[in-house]
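Hi P.,

Sorry for the delay on this. The queue was packed all week, but I finally got your sequence through. Input first:
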Amino acid sequence: MRLLLGGLPDTIDSKNIKVNYYVTAKAAFAYSTRSSRNCPIRVARFPFNSMMLSGDNVARSIDSRRHHAQFLDYHITIDDDTLSVGSLLPLTLWVAPTIPGVRLLSLCVFLVERRSVCGQEEEAYAAHVLSRVDPAKQAVPGHVLTESWRGTIEYRLPDDKCMVPSMNVSGLFNVRHSLKVSMALVFPEITSGRTQRSISFETDIEIRDKQIGLLEKRGAFNLPEYEATSQPSTPPPMYEHPPAYSIY
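Then the structure:
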């Protein structure tokens, strides 16, 4: 069932922000008999207000670009800049030592959620440490780096019991997310033998409702492809813009 709900916010259930919806069905029968029933529903926004519809040939990714640090160069890429609650986050890391004896000890990924309510100065936040999907097979090299290394590690985002989607409801509240990647390094030093340092990269990221993520994975938001044929050129089929919300 789909309805046009205007500027209503999404369903959200957090410590300081709660938005719930219910549908009431009323039936009237003969002899003035009436019946009604309430049913809770969840409202989720389709992504058309924050991004344009795109085909499969358009990539939206997070790219740190190549960074030159004092001890090593690194490059972080994530396939998509928009993820859904409970989904997987594949992170690709490339590192190359710039001095001898550098060792990459650990790679930690944090997802920070910040929630603010209009009229309140205090901002609530929560930090989630993302766990690897397969710790045995997906790990950073623990040995001394003698050459560049590249690998992809999948992390799992928290479910809807711990995290809510990103949203900005003007005049009411704002929920935003950022992703932080921290690398711990060990390298030799003349005075103290070995020294440990950390390098961090942080970027904004958008988190969507779990059901919206499933629809996007199935290609529900991609434009239909226009195929060129030998027949006289015809315009692509008309695409009807879906409603801004879905109820399920």
